[in-house]
């Protein structure tokens, strides 16, 4: 298992697009509805790496098995914080510790960038809640009908923070 930071998606664009399509097809609430078109997934990934977004991928046997993003605040008064976003593990690679490794890697990158506060949101009844709580994230709120899942059903959202100091 290897975690790599991408500053451009380059050679990984097809694997990233396929991963995103698989995650959406599995019903994940990732801001897109099923069926996610391949061109939509490609367009999404081409916009990700930027001045304020760090993209990390997990390679397992040389293939993209998961991703996570660290969204750095561009607010003058928010330079101490970042958001964990789009933590995904390919359905064929789940239950192997990939999401945990990616999350921990993003946290370490945030620390190295001088961030002291991380935020994230996830589906209230989703399996990611167990991971986030086990890694020390604190639930600070729930919002009813926060987002639609991939099939258009409204889902409540959980919001977490973690202090890195």
From TrEMBL:
GO molecular function, a single term: acyltransferase activity, transferring groups other than amino-acyl groups
Taxonomic superkingdom: Bacteria
Pfam families: Acetyltransf_1
UniProt KW keywords: Acyltransferase, Transferase
Gene3D superfamilies associated with the record: 3.40.630.30
Keyword Flavoprotein assigned: no
Record's keyword annotation contains Transferase: yes
Domain named N-acetyltransferase: residues: 1-165
PANTHER family xref list: AMINOALKYLPHOSPHONATE N-ACETYLTRANSFERASE-RELATED (PTHR43877:SF2), AMINOALKYLPHOSPHONATE N-ACETYLTRANSFERASE-RELATED-RELATED (PTHR43877)
Descriptive protein name: N-acetyltransferase domain-containing protein
